[in-house]
Specification:
- This protein is an alpha/beta fold.
- 35% of the residues lie in helices and 17% in strands.
- It is built from nine helices and 13 strands.
- The strands form four sheets. The chain has a seven-stranded parallel beta sheet, with helices on both faces.
- Helix 5 runs parallel beside helix 7 and helix 7 packs across helix 9.
- The N and C termini lie far apart (43 Å).
- The mean pLDDT is 95.
- It binds nicotinamide-adenine-dinucleotide and uridine-5'-diphosphate (UDP).
């Protein structure tokens, strides 16, 4: 039997989704990219349109859709705080109804389905670094809850479809990932700092800048997703995927200023509500089960990302579509 598959990538036009589509197309698979372009734009995938093994469907994953596929990567969901808080009810619907729709499809087609979950399921963690067995500290009524609780509910749905309906699932908890093709106005810290540094604007540091994140370069992350999809069926996760190098926002700002050669200055703004104070993945499980670990250190990944930011025309990007 051929090892080539029909693969659906929901959110396939996004930052991570478009790279995943590229990788899968290069491996020869038939790839269907489904997206409603809420936080992305066609420029991310326009170069893929002429490929005979690529198909684009503009569709909202909160609505059912019938497709025949062998594998599904479920990435559809706004991921940056500004994007997911823009219409929080829609964010929750995307995680919950989107998961129900892809899980129903997977059940009908006997397809394997991978959920792009997040380190946000750990909330503002009391355990450091975060291991998969940690159940998290999420504020269920805060401004981040639409995303955090939506993703937690999605994990629940994945596990229940797996236990009750024997759907072949995978759950990956992705930690902060960056790289070329991030939306330059998504409000995430790396896109903000690089954009601000290149434009000579102040670097907006929230709080005192002592909060930490661990940043993974997108190629490493996409490799982890593919390895998880191809892992033996007994291993459904959840598995953490991220880079364990941990940096404060002040350290990140200094590095971006050094690498861009910018003379921008820091500007301190209030820390948003429920902003996690620290975050670092424990990736022992991914190492053991997937033989995976990140290969690209922050400095190198930032250089590549800065180069891409220098090459784009910021006028081509717009904020998320209103009235969602
Ligand atoms: P992104 O915003 O670039 O990509 C998300 C894509 O989903 C976009 O193309 C968007 O238009 C699409 N989308 C949103 N709602 C949709 C809907 N209702 N129907 C169809 N398409 C929809 O973000 P990303 O960073 O590429 O994130 C991809 C996935 O990975 C998300 O599920 C996100 O939660 C998860 N993730 C990302 C990170 C990260 O640091 N990048 C961290 C943790 C988890
Ligand atoms: N942050 C910041 N300045 C910015 C944007 C973000 O200091 O311009 C901080 C934010 O408060 C958080 C960290 O950077 O502590 C990471 O934010 P991001 O939105 O990138 O990711 P998340 O909070 O979802 O991990």
């Amino acid at each position: 039997m051929s090892s080539l598959k029909r693969i659906l990538v929901t959110g396939g036009a996004g930052f991570l989704g478009s790279h995943l589509c590229e990788r899968l197309i290069d491996e020869g698979h038939d790839v269907i990219c489904l997206d409603n372009f809420f936080t992305s734009q066609k420029t991310n995938i326009v170069h893929l349109l002429p490929k005979p093994n690529f198909e684009l469907i503009r569709h909202d994953i909160t609505l059912p859709i019938f497709l025949e596929v062998d594998e599904i990567y479920n990435l559809a969901c706004p991921a940056a705080p500004g994007h997911y808080q823009y219409n929080p009810i829609k964010t929750m619907k995307t995680s919950v109804m989107g998961s129900i729709n892809v899980l129903g499809m997977a059940r009908r087609c006997r397809a394997k389905v991978l959920q792009a979950s997040t380190s946000e399921v750990y909330g503002d963690p009391q355990v450091h670094p975060q291991v998969e067995s940690y159940r998290g500290a999420v504020n269920p009524i805060g401004p981040r809850a639409c995303y955090e609780e939506g993703k937690r509910a999605a994990e629940t749905l994945f596990m229940d479809y797996h236990r009750r309906n024997r759907v072949n699932i995978r759950i990956c908890r992705i930690f902060n990932t960056y790289g070329p093709r991030m939306h330059p106005y998504d409000g995430r810290v790396i896109s903000n700092f690089i954009r601000q540094a290149l434009m000579g604007e102040n670097l907006t540091i929230f709080g005192e800048g002592t909060q930490t994140r661990s940043f993974c370069y997108r190629d490493d992350l996409v490799e982890g997703l593919i390895r998880m999809m191809n892992a033996p069926d007994e291993f459904v996760g959840p598995v953490n995927l991220g880079n364990s190098g941990e940096f404060s926002m002040l350290e990140l700002a200094e590095l971006v200023l050094e690498l861009t050669g910018s003379r921008s200055k820091p500007a301190f703004l209030p820390l948003p509500a429920d902003d996690p104070l620290k975050r670092q993945p424990d990736i022992a499980l991914a190492r053991k089960k997937l033989g995976w670990e990140p290969t690209i250190p922050l400095r190198e990944g930032l250089l590549r990302t800065i180069e891409w930011f220098r090459s784009i025309d910021l006028g081509h990007y717009r904020p998320p579509t209103p009235n969602y």
